[in-house]
């Protein structure tokens, strides 16, 4: 049974002031403490996650092209990149899935675990399917309420049958390691916050 996203925040608040206060500030700046109720607002964590994924995809594809490394083709790979950008896709998932912002941090952890356990590189051919699959799994594990696979399939632009296969492949790929402790969650929040300063440095350099 998974943890609740608000329980995770409570666990953060229970930490000592020396460590907990800074992490809670990052929580707030990432938009992880905002409620889904009321006016629709895109939390900052989505922008930073999208930026990190886009940079990773670009870096991997340049490296693979230079070294002529062939990526392992799996059911997560499409024949060509989808017309929708990573940022647009992440925003769409958030808008229609009604999952908590924390799900995207947990999904990020899951994707890293999956990539570490396989020979797959994150590219424009697989990043969208990995996203919809990992976010759906994270929502099931983190949130009290979530939609079924058929609904997530429509949101992600795939068939229900395909998403079912993707889910099972993903779960076996991470050995069903769905638990994310507070320290790991905090580390990934720091990583996303760092993406903000790294992205700014790149913009200044151009």
From TrEMBL:
User: Is Secreted among the key words of this record?
Assistant: no
Do the record's keywords include Cell division? yes
Pfam families, alphabetized: Cyclin
Database matches in InterPro entries: Cyclin-like_sf (IPR036915), Cyclin_PHO80-like (IPR013922)
The alphabetized UniProt keywords are: Cell cycle, Cell division
Family statement drawn from the similarity comment of this UniProt entry: Belongs to the cyclin family. Cyclin U/P subfamily.
Q: What is this protein called?
A: Cyclin
Q: Which organism is it from?
A: Salix suchowensis
